[in-house]
What we know:
heterodimer; A: 275 residues; alpha/beta; Rossmann fold; 2 domains; six-stranded mixed β-sheet; four-stranded antiparallel β-sheet; B: mainly alpha; ABC transporter involved in vitamin B12 uptake, BtuC; 76% helix; globular
Amino acid sequence: MTSENKLVGQAAPPAHLAVRGIQKRFGGVHALRGVDFEVARGEVMALVGDNGAGKSTLMKVLAGAHAADDGAFLLDGQPVTVATPNDASALGIQIVYQDLALCENLDVSANLSLGDEPTKPGWGFLPRLLRPLDDLEMEVKAREAIDKLQVRTLQSVRAKVGGLSGGQRQAIAIARAVGTESTVVMLDEPTAALGVAQTRQVLEVVKRLRETQHAVVYISHNMRDIFEVADRITVLRHGTNVATYTTSETTPDEIVVAMTRGLDTVSDEGAGDAA
Amino acid sequence: MTILDRFRALRETQFGAFVPVLLALAAIWGYFGLVLPAYDVMTGEADSFRAIFLSPRNIYNLFMQSAVIATLAVGITIVLLLGEIDLSAAATAGVCAALLGVLVLAGVPGWLACIIVMGVGVVMGAAQGVLVAYVGIPSFVVTLAGLLGYQGLMQKILPTGNLNVGDPFVRGIARVLIPDMWGLALAVVVVAAFAFANLRKQSQRKAKGLELDSPLALWGQVIAFGIIVVAVVLTLNAYRSLPLLLVLLVALTALLGWISVSTPYGRSLFAVGGNAESARRLGMKVQRIRVSAFAIVGLMAAIGGIFGASRFGSVSYTAFAGGSLLLEAIGAAVIGGTSLFGGRGSVWNAILGALVIGSLGNGLDLTGASAADKLMVSGAILLLAVAIDAVSRNNAGGR
């Protein structure tokens, strides 16, 4: 019941990152059974599915955290290999995990350049790890990254991350992913733990990413958020594609039915009782 | 904002982290130096007001007594930043000091013996680091085993438990005094460099359009630093002079302080201590960082051993491995404000913490308190420091 024709519709923009026929097994569990997925620049592609549908596994495969057993990676149409997280980030694919992976004991600017700190020139004789940090440059870069995402509530890039709100932390984690010359940004449940105002803040940031021509993969359970930011929606079920919808041409009910029952029952029962 | 919130906010600032331990130090010095003598005068026990504790002679001894504790505490701070602990530091210092004594006795030149034991210290620390990082044993257990093993090793090296060290080079570290004028000149140069670095940074911030430090904080920081440095040198000059040992200790601390705050390596220490998983995902070599931190403790322990041997003119089992040095050093680091949970702290605070521990011991000695009293008071102070750490962490984290 794969539906190739529905996957790449007429209106689909040219894909920036595309994967075809991804297979992934964990021992006896066949987590991904030939999944196709794609996302274009300047597009927010939502990835939805019930628990165990393979969303997280697919995302980790895309990020290089799991190596796919089989399948093809295409970046702007060119075949590429993504076997490790370093491969993925070298290709400009960045992921923001649900736990954000920020260091709460460090300030915003330190977090944004962590692992790739600018150092002052003229100390080349020292090993890189012992060259003096250029913390002013770090703050300038942090300021730019924060301004680009228009996080207005953040007063100072010298504030410790531990003292920030959930929405601000999410924005900083996104800023870190975007800051490293990335073209594909994957967000795992970015609003799951946030209140109304903070969710709004994060959704604004996601829209900014679309405006800056990033390819955004947005994983969420929240239909309201998805219908607000996503351009297209890919539905997974039992490790395979159900379909890819254009957001403006579908309804939350249709998506929920596709998530829970798959495609073949949709036409029979129509938009059901779920929502 | 409650007082507690203000206190937490204060600790988050760069210089504010020193405030609690400086207040503790001021309270202890005030009590032993002013309150107790005044009480003695009022009750008629003493016929005149004599501030023995605050006399230049006692301050000099206090600094020298605290120097070995401070050296170890500075090293231990580095592993505490990672969220690990090293219980074997004092035993490592003991082994290194014993080895130093045996080497100079065998005719090895003092400078060479010092270099050899520093190398041995690094290896002893790194070996434990490998067990922690690559084998995955908790550092508490590894270094507890190290504590026992190294204590035994020290007894093997020193079967009599005591050895005099007469080598002029080794003894010179604690005996050489910087002439009064040179000491003052050094202090002025250091303060001027500190002021210059701060002002230059401020002007660069202005040029790049970044947030500025408030002038009050900036100048307050420079002036407070200047007063403390000059006052310390003048007080030491009033008794003898600035000892080379203290200059070495401050220079080592400055080096480690600079590495831990201003280099990518130091940043990685804080990152691993704050969120090891995040550091790993960012491509940091977490295991190597752990091993290197333990190597640094080993190095500082060896230097502490050298300082101790130099100051006492002898190496004894009780002065290092078998005594209270370990708990005093860990206590100093924690009292200084370095978190046992990792990711927060500073090597400079360790020196102030060592002064708190040293002052308590010294003050209680002067008032004729028993060893039992000293242990109980030290325990209470340590508990207070850890409680402050835990309370301020509850706020800072979310976890």
